[in-house]
């Protein structure tokens, strides 16, 4: 594991918890929030020890002020910045990306079915992680894709 400053660790924590919150808030519900929080926490607890060490530390609050769109952009910016910071150690970067991708998917699946707004939030987080082409755990398990627009046909 590379050495990370306290400020870098704060960005990494803010990115992790922000990404989970972004997916959870995409399809709000009072009781769903508890289920989704627990699901995200369980995944973070399974992270490799080097990544769990980065999640420990002081509380990192969500971005404050601004519109929902501005808060979303701040969270996605933190995710991108965390990935850049973690580039110091490719194994840390990959582990973080894997954990956050899985946590976001588990959060979305924790309550009812995955809502289109949650899928959109996951796609934004994946794009920020640089994992836009990474299949979701659901797709890897052979689950049917979520309804949505059909994929574009490749040019002839």
Please provide a written account of the structure.
Residues 126-156 are annotated as: Disordered. Residues 146-156 have a biased composition (Pro residues). With 156 residues, the protein is mainly alpha-helical. The protein has one domain (7-55, 68-131). It is 65% helix and 0% strand. It has seven helices and no strands. The chain has helices spanning 6-26, 30-45, 49-55, 68-86, 90-109, 116-129, 137-140. Helix 1 (6-26) runs antiparallel to helix 6 (116-129) and helix 2 runs antiparallel to helix 5 (90-109). The chain is globular.
Features:
0% strand; globular; 156 residues; disordered C terminus; mainly alpha
Write the layout of secondary structure elements.
Layout: H1 6-26, H2 30-45, H3 49-55, H4 68-86, H5 90-109, H6 116-129, H7 137-140
Helix pairs in contact: 1-2, 1-4, 1-5, 1-6, 2-5, 4-5, 4-6, 5-6
Strand content: under 5%
**SSE sequence, one letter per element:** HHHHHHH
Shape assignment: globular
Helix content: 55-70%
The tally of beta strands, per DSSP, is: 0
The helix/strand class is mainly alpha
What's the structural domain tally? 1
Radius of gyration (CA) equals 16 Å
- Summarize the biggest pleated sheet: none
Counting DSSP H or I runs of 4 or more residues, the number of helices is 7
Q: End-to-end span in angstroms?
A: 47 Å
Uncertain regions: pLDDT < 50 for 5+ in a row? Answer: 132-156
What value does the average pLDDT take?
82
Biased composition (Pro residues): 146-156
Region (Disordered): 126-156
């Amino acid at each position: 594991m590379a050495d990370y400053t306290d400020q870098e660790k704060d960005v990494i924590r803010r990115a992790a918890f922000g990404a989970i919150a972004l997916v959870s808030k995409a399809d709000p519900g009072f009781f769903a929030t508890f289920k989704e929080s627990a699901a995200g926490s369980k995944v973070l607890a399974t992270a490799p020890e080097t990544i769990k060490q980065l999640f420990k530390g002081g509380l990192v609050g969500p971005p404050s002020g601004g519109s929902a769109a501005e808060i979303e952009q701040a969270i996605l910016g933190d995710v991108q910045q965390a990935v850049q910071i973690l580039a110091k150690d490719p194994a840390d970067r990959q582990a973080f990306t894997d954990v956050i991708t899985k946590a976001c998917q588990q959060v979305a699946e924790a309550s009812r079915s995955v809502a289109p707004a949650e899928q959109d939030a996951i796609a934004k987080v994946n794009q920020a992680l640089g994992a836009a082409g990474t299949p979701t755990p659901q797709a890897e398990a052979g689950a049917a894709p979520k309804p949505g627009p059909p994929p574009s046909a490749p040019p002839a």
